[in-house]
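Usage

Read records sequentially. Each one opens with the input sequence:
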Amino acid sequence: MTHVVSDELDLFLAYLGRADEVEALTLVRNLLGKGVPGDRVLTDLVIPALRGVGERWATGEWTVAREHSASHVAGRVVHLITDATPRPRSEARVVVCCAQGDWHGLASTILAALLRVRGIDTTVLPPGTGAGELARMLPDSGAGSVALGCTVSTALPGARAMVEVARRVGIPVLVGGPGFGPDGRWAGLIGANGWAADARGAADTLAGPDWPALTTPAPRLRHLPDAAHDGVGLLRTPLVAAGMSALVPIEGERSDTTMRDGLVTAVDALAVSLFVDDHALFVDFTRWFADVLGHRRVPGEALAAAYRAFAARLTHVPGADATLTAAGAVL
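and closes with the structure output:
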């Protein structure tokens, strides 16, 4: 029935685009009423539609407010599918959560709904749950696994902290999401027991025979980046101010929220690039941000100027200059 679902994708995306919750819910109820499995609705309709939402924001076609409204309606659809699925009776429960510092809770909600359709009981923790809260709730949760999502790479230090507390009490952690990089390249570094490319793969892995019932504590990081990472993070406010000042000769005195917010994220991405000891993280962020700015007619030289301002203030931070130089080369 995949074609039945995919045929409705454009219409569903249109409903999300105008925040038409009634029509979006009606469409999904009709699919479920025709016997389309809930997991198919999630993987073949909801997830592709959300990718479309993200693409429309990135190109400037949709505003942030429109993107948020669309995501809210999609969340209501996911809850509809969850409510239509009987609670599983599985013995081992999966705790589903976002990485500390990642506020994109919809991905976790989708995964939890998919697991429930597959017969796996879940406990979903809200965005903003930190490693300390996870450590306190896990021993009495009945959890056999933790499924940890990370949408943005800037939350990798928080993901590491949450992996550590779960593995310390013997609970294996499966991770997923674009925050772990192409092919999950940083999943092993932060100590995950496994990585899944998408929600369907995560459900298959957690239900499969090879997923461990117990685990050992997370291995130590291969390097000790905390000083460099913290050195950048503590300077976020003056770095963003310096970056915005560097734009004045290029962009004039205009105040651009996208640029300012992007520079905040750039500082965090630089810090995490040092945390994982990999230039590629910051280079990939730079390509993405430059593309977002390009759709808004902001020249690449503007971002390059901001990076030069960063470098001038980070001469004391090991690795910062080399990372900024590598990123500047793609602008």
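Summary fields computed downstream for this record:
- Strands lie at 93-98, 122-124, 143-149, 173-176, 194-196.
- The radius of gyration is 21 Å.
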